[in-house]
Every structure is written in C-alpha cells, then in structure tokens.
Amino acid sequence: MVLVPEGRGVCPGLTVRENLQVAHRSGGAGAGPWDEWYKSIGQTFPRLAERLDQQAGSLSGGEQQML
Fold first, then answer.
1. What confidence tens digit (pLDDT) does each residue in 6-55 have?
2. What share of the chain is helix, strand, coil (3-state, %, to 5)?
3. What span, in angstroms and rounded, lies between the C-alpha atoms of 30 and 37?
C-alpha cells in the first residue's frame, strides 16, 4: 500500500516524457541509469508509456498521480 498525495506535482505544460526526465534528473524514485529507470517506469505504469508525448495537464487525475 502506498500513499499518493492529492497534490499531483506534475508540470502540466510538459509532456509525460519531459516530466519523467525532470524527475530522473532530480534523482526521484531512486533514479539509476536513465535507460533502466525509464524502462521500469514503463513496465510499472504501462498507461504512461502509451502517453509519452501527451501533455501532462491533459491526463486524467489518476494518470497524473501515476506520473
């Protein structure tokens, strides 16, 4: 079980991919090498992997929480 705060903390004007890149650069979620980290995100959250080029602000609330 994990607590997902209601404040989503995404940059709505950036794409899903760009948001992930920002999180990775800041060392979020135990970031290791980009390729491995990026692959693990796609496996854990396949819905996000389908929306990499979509603006984060246009995602549903649940998708924004995943991001």
1. 677 899 999 999 998 888 877 655 556 777 877 888 899 999 999 999 99
2. 55, 5, 40
3. 9
